[in-house]
Amino acid sequence: MPLAGERPTPVAPERVAEWIERFAAISEPDSGPGVTRLAHTALERRAHEVFTDFMAGLGLTVWTDAAGNTIAEKPGTEETAAVGTGSHLDSVPSAGRFDGIAGVVAAMLLAERVVTDGVGHRRPLRFVAFAGEEGARFGRACIGSRIVAGLTTTADLHQLQDAKGVGLAEAMAGVGLDPDAVADARWSPREWAGFVELHIEQGSVLADAGAAVGVVDVISGSTRLELTVDGVAAHSGGMPMHLRRDALTAAAEVVLELEALAGTADDGRRITVGRLEALPGSITTIPGRCVLTVDIRDIDLERQCATAEDVLERAAAIAERRGVTLTSRHLAEASPEELTPSVRRTLIDVAREVGTEPLVLPSGASHDTQMIKQVCPVGMLFVPSRAGGVSHSPHEDTDFGDLARGADLLGAALLRLAR
Ligand SMILES: [Zn+2]
Q: What Å distances lie between residue 408 and 10, 12, 24, 163, CA to CA?
C-alpha cells in the first residue's frame, strides 16, 4: 500500500476508453454526427448523475450546487483547505468525445485509484464536474465555474438569452437548478488550496512536437461581439446593382477585413466570425439585415482590448462606405490569465520524475480553470489531440494511453499539492 504522497497505481487505458464511451452515449438522438449534450439540458444533468453515482460508489461525499456543478470529496487526514481537479460534461453541438469529458474521466479514475490503493493525503481531495462550460448556447462560456468564482450572479443569469429567446435562468430552472440561489454555490478561498484541470489540447502543438503532455502557462482571454449590419431588403431582380444597400456583402467584407486584421503570425491573437445570419434569408431578396458574431482571443490583455476597438472601427468604416448601418453588442469578456507558477512547477516536476519532458504552452481556448484562478492557485495539464488537433468536431481524437498517462501525472501533482 503506497504511503502518503506517493503515486497511486497507473490508470488503465481500457478504463479510460470505457468511460469515454459511456459518456459519449449520453447524446441527443438524431442530432447528426458526434456527441450533442448541450449546457443546461436534461442530458447534461444525466451525465452529472453518472458522475455522482460513480463517486458515491467509491464512498465519497457528493453534492450538486445550485448552479449544477457536482463535487465529490474524499477527506484528508486534516480538515483543511482542499485541492481539486475536474472539468466539464457539456458539449457543443456535434462535438467529439473528449473536450471536457477527458478531465472528468481522469478525475473519476484517479479517485478510484486513490480509494482502491488506500493512498493517504493530508488535504481533502475534491473531484469536480462543472456545469455549462460551453458558451455555444448563451454566448457565455464557463457559467458553472464563473458562478463558483463569484464572476456571474443571479442577475446575470436573468439577463442572458439563447437564440430562441429562452433565458439562461429559465433553462437552469427547467432542469431543476436554482438560478436564484447561485450565490450559495460560491467557493471560498479558505476552502481551496489548489485546482488542476486536465484537458485535451484542442490544437496540434503537442502532437507536432512529439510531446506526451503539455503544461499550460497562460489561458487566452476572449472578447465576444455581435455585429448587426442593416441595409435595405429589396427584390433581387428589380433592384439594379449600383442602387443596392446589401447587408450581406457588407458583412462579407467585414469578415475578410477581420481575417486580415488577425494576420497569419502565430502570436496568440485569433479572430473568428463563427456565425453569420442573413435576413430575411430568401433566394430572391437582397439581404436587408445581417447578424454576425466576432470572437477575439489573445494572450495579451492590452492587445485584446485594442483589437476589439479596431474591429469595431474597421467594421464601421466598411458600413459607412457601403451605405449600411452598423450596431454592435458586447456579449462577453474574459481576460487572459497566467496560471499559478508554483502549480506549473509541480506539474513539470512530476512529469520529469517519470522521464516525460512536458511542453509549456499557452491555451487558445478558455477553460473553467481560468475562472477558478479567482479562488485559489491553479494549473492545467494538456494531453495531445490527434487528427490534426481538431476539436468541437466529431473527428476530435485523443489516444486512450496518452489520456491514462495524463491522469497519472494529474494524480501525482494533486497528491503532492495535498501533502
Ligand atoms: Zn472544454
A: 6, 10, 22, 41
Question: How far is ligand 1, taken at its centre, from the CA of residue 306, in Å?
Answer: 27
Write out the DSSP string of 203-255.
SSHHHHHT-S-EEEEEEPEEEEEEEEEE---EETTTS-GGG---HHHHHHHHH
Q: How far is the CA of 133 from the centre of ligand 1 (A)?
A: 7
- CB 235 within 8 Å of CB 286: yes
Instruction: Return d(Cα 397, Cα 204) in angstroms, integer.
Output: 11
Residue 150 φ/ψ, nearest 5 degrees: 80, 20
**Domain map (residue ranges) of the chain:** 13-219+336-417, 221-334
* Rounded distance from Cα 99 to ligand 1 centre (Å): 5
Residue carrying the nine cell digits 483547505: 81
Identify which of 149-158, 252-261, 386-395 has the greatest average pLDDT.
252-261
Q: At CB < 8 A and 24+ separation, what contacts does 240-244 make?
A: 244/286
Distance, CA of 282 to CA of 378 (rounded, Å): 50
> Cell numbers 439540458 correspond to what residue?
41
Q: If you classify domain 221-334 with CATH, what class do you get?
A: alpha beta
- Structure confidence at residue 139 (pLDDT): 76
pTM as predicted: 0.86
> 36 pLDDT exceeds 50?
yes
Q: Which tens digits make up the pLDDT trace of 168-190?
A: 999 999 999 999 999 999 999 99
> Does 3.40.630.10 match the CATH number of domain 13-219+336-417?
yes
Ligand 1 centroid, distance to 302 Cα (angstroms): 25
**Residue 1's pLDDT band (cuts 50, 70, 90):** very low
